[in-house]
Amino acid sequence: MIDRREFTRILSAAAVGVALPAPVLARWPRQDTYFRWQEVSPGVRVAIGGGGNVLLVADGGEALVSDAKNFGMGHTLRREAEAFGTPVTVAVNTHHHGDHSGGNIAFAGDLPLISNPAAQRRIRQQAAGVAGQTNDRLATMIDQMSRGGTDPRVIDDVRNEASAVEAAYPEAMAPNDTFEVEREVRVGRRTVLLRHVGAGHTDNDVFLHVPDANVIHTGDLLFVGRHGFMDQNGGVDSQGWQRSVRAMIDLCDTETIVVSGHGEVVDRHGLERQYEYFNQLRSAVEAAVAEGRTKEEVQALTPPSLADISGNPSRNLGVVYDEVAGG
Ligand SMILES: [Zn+2]
Predict the structure, then answer these.
(1) 194 vs 276: CA distance, rounded Å
(2) Of the CATH numbers 2.40.50.100, 3.50.50.60, 3.60.15.10, 3.90.320.10, which one belongs to the domain with range 31-326?
């Protein structure tokens, strides 16, 4: 056990950012937050876990949160974001997928929640489609969390989310403010730029750029070290995805902090790898198609150029086959 004195020492060491010796870290009593928060620049944080990576940008009494985690987790996200000392004043969805918009109900009821119009439309459809299941899903979550010894504050958050769902589902799941191509949002003295280049991971991807902090939030236009999800029903376009990645690379210098949708925080090299990924995928497919291979055969390929990417390439090979053969 850690006595009170040692605990105080750990806390004060952590507060000033002193590196702790490993044995002390291993005895840390418990994580104090549900999400793993990482400050990547003063006033700019990332929340990892429980859905796509979230960006929090605060300044001058205002804060922007980009993405809302999985269904049921919005209230926890908002509570933990606001515990850093600034109320959330504006929210963004980078795209419609449920691991980025599932917690929207904690934001859209009383704040501007901004997305591309196609994301708004798809989130409305999505929410309406599962309207009959929301109570059960939340009740199951509360039950599992109670048995699993989850922090009681998080369980309370899910109860609050259930009440909000009861009162305002599905309307308050959807973004309430949209833009087509570009939007500038003020957060205190900071500017956050939102941009939709075109279809990429979906037909409604938005990335964020915080110039004064030199930070980019890619949404799911960047998957680090794994095969990105190519959503055929959501309007994926591999060449459009590359155009979006190129637009982000053009904003980068060697110091730029790149917050991916899934995976670690990286720099411009992460974006360059994502760009190259599609070239490699496409050249593997094109070579096979030129040899007269079937879609099934293409999906069974294991391109050596993609050997260091984790996961199975079969699905993405099939999507690119459809693009190449269909176009
Ligand atoms: Zn996604």
Answers:
(1) 24
(2) 3.60.15.10
